[in-house]
From TrEMBL:
<dbReference type="GO" id="GO:0004096">
    <property type="term" value="F:catalase activity"/>
</dbReference>
<dbReference type="Pfam" id="PF06628">
    <property type="entry name" value="Catalase-rel"/>
</dbReference>
<comment type="similarity">
    <text>Belongs to the catalase family. HPII subfamily.</text>
</comment>
<feature type="domain" description="Catalase core">
    <location>
        <begin position="32"/>
        <end position="420"/>
    </location>
</feature>
<keyword id="KW-0479">Metal-binding</keyword>
<keyword id="KW-0560">Oxidoreductase</keyword>
<dbReference type="InterPro" id="IPR024712">
    <property type="entry name" value="Catalase_clade2"/>
</dbReference>
<dbReference type="InterPro" id="IPR018028">
    <property type="entry name" value="Catalase"/>
</dbReference>
<dbReference type="Pfam" id="PF00199">
    <property type="entry name" value="Catalase"/>
</dbReference>
<dbReference type="InterPro" id="IPR011614">
    <property type="entry name" value="Catalase_core"/>
</dbReference>
<dbReference type="InterPro" id="IPR024708">
    <property type="entry name" value="Catalase_AS"/>
</dbReference>
<keyword id="KW-0349">Heme</keyword>
<dbReference type="InterPro" id="IPR041399">
    <property type="entry name" value="Catalase_large_C"/>
</dbReference>
<keyword id="KW-0376">Hydrogen peroxide</keyword>
<dbReference type="InterPro" id="IPR002226">
    <property type="entry name" value="Catalase_haem_BS"/>
</dbReference>
<comment type="function">
    <text>Decomposes hydrogen peroxide into water and oxygen; serves to protect cells from the toxic effects of hydrogen peroxide.</text>
</comment>
<dbReference type="InterPro" id="IPR029062">
    <property type="entry name" value="Class_I_gatase-like"/>
</dbReference>
Amino acid sequence: MDKSWSNHGKDTDAKEQQLEEFRVNNVGKKMTTNQGVNVSNDEDSLKSGVRGPTLMEDFHFREKMTHFDHERIPERVVHARGYAAHGEFVLYESMKEYTRAGFLQKAGSKTPVFLRFSNVVGSSGSMDTARDVRGFAVKFYTEEGNYDLVGNNIPIFFIQDAMKFPDLIHAAKPEPNNEMPQAATAHDTFWDFVANNQESAAMVMWLMSDRAIPKNYRMMEGFGVHTFRFINDKGKSRFVKFHWKPVLGVHSLVWDEAQIIAGKDTDFQRRDLWESIEMGNFPEYELGVQILEQEEEFKFDFDILDATKLWPEEIVPVKIIGKLTLNRNVDNVFAETEQVAFHPGNVVPGIDFTNDPLLQGRLFSYIDTQLLRLGGPNFAEIPINRPICPIHNNQRNGFSRQTINVGRVSYHKNSLANNTPSTSTEAKGGFVHYEEKVEGRITRARSKSFDDHFSQARLFWNSMSPPEKQHIINAFSFEVGKVNSQSVRQQVVDMFVHVDKEMATIIAHNVGVNKPTGEQSTVTASSPALSQANTIKLPQTLKVGVLIGNGFDATEVNNVLKTLTKYGVRYSIIGERIGAIESKEGVQLMANETYLTTDSVLFDALYVVGVSADNQAKFNQDILININQAFRHYKPIGVARTGMQFLNESNAKIGPGIVVQTGNADFGEKFVEAIATQRFWNRDIY
């Protein structure tokens, strides 16, 4: 017998024995803590009243979350793949009426910021364009201390209580038996979690939408997710949610395009951010706030403290109060992007927390994670984390201590150093938590006001345009179609029938399970702000791939390139090889890309010029591949007179988004108009 085969058999037998031991030791057994105490509830953290704050005495939550926070070193457990930049925030108008936060007091005031974008699920070495939630974390270096607004590009989240966060991430991460798939939720454990934790319904609708594959960071919305408090200098509290609105509008990739980009340029989104800043095309985001009076807390048919719910903008308008501009790239990715430590508990006077149980858990989890990832309690001394205001306290020593403290006093209160450092009163800038009255029995339960899981999922569906709805159906069909368990596939469609029966029925057909029999939500409302069909459309900073060879018409091409530049549209000359390309008049253009080094998916539009090359057959084929792909991805295509032969040989049809030079005196202007539109969903691509 072959020796290697014999060993393989023994390994298989040993593995089967281990699996059997696991079944015997675990299947059907009751859950316990690591100390052996039986667990009565693994869904909800311990609170003072069902809508009250989470209690630190919850040993089960702390054990579970601490273990989760320390699972991986040194890479972040979540949001591992990230990219960042420096910038500044300028306040449009004083918010003194609402908050005493110093950086929000004077119109025109500037605050330095550091913003880290990230993907949630994938490792640091995964691709940028995966279908995933994106982090949108902003550190404000204010004169009162650092304020961290740690959010995402989606305004809600999968779960309502932080107790379930480890479970969510365990389910979404690669499955532990084979460490696959990377940076993807298209597998059994994630969808098993979704089907059995139906509070995730609304978030999953967002995840299956175009919002989960943003075109780039510059065209991605950001949200604070949770409900926070604004507190003014009179002690009056109001509820607030934070929004970041990209000046260029909210735009996305199409799924096929995102998958191809993952192979063509793993760093597509981070490269776009870096190059844009280097070129002076600074990304801009306006900060908006939704504000509710204290007495409006119970005004709505959803709980404002439920992180799986948004406040529809048509009901609670977004007030735009300032603008963030990213104007400087990092000098060292590790020292800045990787060592930056965000924490939603980093607030300044005038901004405070609510009893949102997901937020309450994050207040513990984030700092606990940094202790492991950054080697101890002194991570605030790392340059990227240092406040710009002076630091004075009695904290000493520990791993990687940078400060050299002098003197012998390191305690409060003291007489040997005249009781310094001393505390500050609220009037002198001291942080004082909002004095909220809290009553209730200590309980491990969830408020009944958190029970509705499908109304806002239905609201999101109702708000989508027909192409967006089709994309959601396609995404479900792909993701759930990758699930091996027929039972899980059936559970998923049985769950999402409550969002939309027709949608769930189509998905069921596509993934090979029975037609769902439940009834959809009766919600008829929609929110136009949720649809990208209603976003801003501008040509600035978009990028055109110019497909060109020798013998082009110099006057025609030069006029088009001038028009693109006039409107802030970038372009890249793509030739048979890098170097000079010569027009029929002897004018030269320099090709900086070839058909081997780039691809239509890396551009927002194509300008087809064509003509001749040394290897004409391959040249023709390369141009046709790019035209066909751009057409299939609904992108605008401009065609020079010399490019018509290529268009005629391609799969592209004259129609929406196809702008031809022939007989078109204002070709450049019309091409720019098409570029600004970005996608032509009414195009027949089949």
